[in-house]
Amino acid sequence: MPFAPVIVKIYLIFSMNSIIDGFIKSFSLIINLDKELLGIIFLSLNVSGTALVISTLIGVPAGTIIGLKRFPGRGFIISLLNTFMGLPPVVVGLFVYLLLSRSGPLGFMGLLYTPSAMVAAQTVLAFPIVASLCHSAIVNVNPIIKQASVTLGATPYQVATTIVREVRYGILSGIIAGFGRVMAEVGAILIVGGNIAGYTRVMTTTIALETDKGNFELALALGIILLIISFLINILLHIIQRKGRLKTAI
Question: By residue range, what is the domain housing residue 17?
Answer without folding.
Answer: 1-32
